[in-house]
Structure formats: C-alpha cells, structure tokens
Amino acid sequence: MKVEKKLSAKDYVEKIGVSFEKEGFQPAMGRIFAYLIIADPPHKSFEEILEYLKISKSAVSTSLNYLMSRDLVEYITLPGDRKRYFKINMSGWLTLIKKKMARRSFFGEIMKEALSARSNKYKEFNDALEEQAEFLDFMHKEMKDALDKWERKKKKKG
Amino acid sequence: MKVEKKLSAKDYVEKIGVSFEKEGFQPAMGRIFAYLIIADPPHKSFEEILEYLKISKSAVSTSLNYLMSRDLVEYITLPGDRKRYFKINMSGWLTLIKKKMARRSFFGEIMKEALSARSNKYKEFNDALEEQAEFLDFMHKEMKDALDKWERKKKKKG
DNA sequence: CAATTAGTTCTGTAATTACAGAACCAAAAA
DNA sequence: TTTTTGGTTCTGTAATTACAGAACTAATTG
C-alpha cells in the first residue's frame, strides 16, 4: 500500500517549479508560476511574490513581464488598491502548446525541403526521412483535431 | 507567385540547426543533426563531421555521445574500416515526442496534487486549474491514440 | 509639492554553458 | 614494438544566463 505523503506548499513550489524549468523556463519563472498555482487566494501582489520566494525585485519584475508577454500570467486590480495582483492565465498553457506544435510542423517543412535537395542515391534514407516529415505532419494534424475536439467538448459543457 | 529559392547545403544546416536548438539542444548538436539530415551519403565519420562543421573534436565527441544516448543518432561500421559512421536514427524523434508527452502528463499530475492541497475558497480558480489538468490528460491520451494510429498505418503499409 | 508606493531599469557579478585545444588512451596497423 | 588512428577526457576560457542590489521613475497620497 502506497503511503501518500502530503507535500507542503513549499515542496509543491519546488516540484512544479522544476517541471516548469524543464519546459524551458528560467528557475525564477518556474517558481513564480508554481507559487501562483498553489497561491491562496490565487492572485498575489508583486511584494508577496518576492517575499514568499525570497528573490529580488528585478527577478520578479522581469519574470512576471516575460510570463505576461507569453500569456501565461495576467493581473487583476482590486478597487481602492494601487497594486496589481498577478495570477495564472489558464489559457496560456494552450497557447504554449499551440506554439510548440507550430514549431514542430515547421521542422517537418524543413525536413521536406532538405529532402528535395538530396540526391536519389540513398533511397532508403530518403524514404525514412520523408516518413519522418510525414509523421510530424500527421501529429500536427492529429493534435489540431484533438484541440478542436477539446474545444467542442468544453463549449458543450460550459 | 512565390519564387522558391533553392537553399545551399550549408544554409540547410543553419536552418535545421536553429530549429533543433529551439527544441532545447546545444548549437553544436543542432548543427551535427542538421548535417546528418542533408549528408550524402547519410552516414558520416567523426572526421567528416568536424571538418564540415569546423568544430573541435571534443565538441563532436560529446555531442555525438549525447545524441546517441538520446537515440537520435546511431552509427554503423563498414567492412574493413575501423571508423564509425554516424547517421540519424529516424525513430529517435518519435522517442523524443513520447518523452515530452510523459513530462507533460507528469505536469498534469502535479497540478492535480496541488489542487488537492488547495482550499475550496476559490472555486473558480480551482475549477480552471482542474480543467487545465484535465486538458493535459486529454491531450496526452489523444496523442497516444494518434501514435497508435500512426503505427497501425505504418504497419499496414510497410 | 514632498513623500511614499509599486514597480522598472541599469549595473555588476556569480554561476553555468558550450566549446576549443591539448593531453590522453585503447585498438589496430605497420 | 612502435606508430597511427579514432576517438575520449581534461583543462581552460569566452560567452551567456540568471539574478541581486541599487538607482531610478511615474503615479498616488498626504
């Protein structure tokens, strides 16, 4: 029987942060994103972020601005309060995935271009290369379909 | 009417190399991988690689070993020739995608864990977070299906 | 029109990366 | 047995990254 050990909030921040880093973001960004996932309430001020994570203003500022430019984070304001409150933009992840898809599809394109420039002396290799490009195309299409499917499902429910 | 400008081999190497870098690989790795895509014949020796790309032995060695450890590159040998000839392992890209899928699914898991630790005071946020986790799950499943579909398609044809 | 607040931007630096160059080494060839 | 080949590994470094800390600024508040 597996004992489910409850993680502390700080542990979540580390764990999520590391995963986020693996997606290619800087450490500070990962931890900010992670903090905003576990944050209760889910919106936190600039100050709260830097205090909780013990990172500098500059790191918070640049990270937040980057995350906002990528639509992964947004902010709200509260009446009678000058501060901005930062929170996760849930649609950002989807945007991110779409961008990655586009990149991969582009990679497939390039492979096809390369193919057209190759000699026909190594048919086996060329065939494999073409198959790779087709695979990328295929996956791109399938993922697009999946996204559509998801969106339809969501619309029906919501 | 679009004029299709034919790229030189070196240009392909740059273009593919950059794309590969964007997938998170080091510059040298990107260019080696790119070179192996356009290489005619598609297998090249250690020496040929370093000469063509004008990079050091150490860079070639570490890059090739890394690429091989990731199953993106493999090597063949030729009778009566001590050298190894490196070439692209076409199944590597698929492995790569599978690994990325696994990572993303893991990310979804963590989000669900975080969810279970959140208070129920911010239902809207929690719901959105849950939806995100479900979305990642959904995409993971869809991609797995797509991969199966591709494999069946390939089996039927090949 | 000060003083405070909520950040931004600049400057410097510690840590890390990505690689070159040289030393090195095991297997094969001479 | 020495020499050559086909790499690998070590050492040093230039370039880059990721951030701290301080200076700065525009809006708000007193």
Fraction of residues of chain A in helices? 55-70%
CATH architecture of the largest domain in chain A: Orthogonal Bundle
Give the N-terminus to C-terminus distance of chain A in angstroms. 38 Å
Strand content of chain A: 5-15%
Structural domain count of chain A: 2
Task: Specify the number of helices of chain A.
Answer: 6
Low-confidence stretches of chain A: none
Note the quaternary state here: homodimer
Q: Which chains make the largest contact? A: A-B, 50 and 50 residues
Radius of gyration of chain A: 21 Å
The CATH superfamily of the largest domain in chain A is known as Winged helix-like DNA-binding domain superfamily/Winged helix DNA-binding domain
The biggest sheet of chain A, with number of strands, parallel, antiparallel or mixed sense and barrel status, is: 3 strands, antiparallel
The geometry of chain A reads as elongated
Write the element-wise H/E pattern of chain A from the N-terminal end onward.
HHEHHEEHH
Give the neighbour order of strands across the main sheet of chain A.
1-3-2
CATH topology of the largest domain in chain A, which one?
A: Arc Repressor Mutant, subunit A
- Which structural class is indicated by helix and strand composition of chain A? mainly alpha
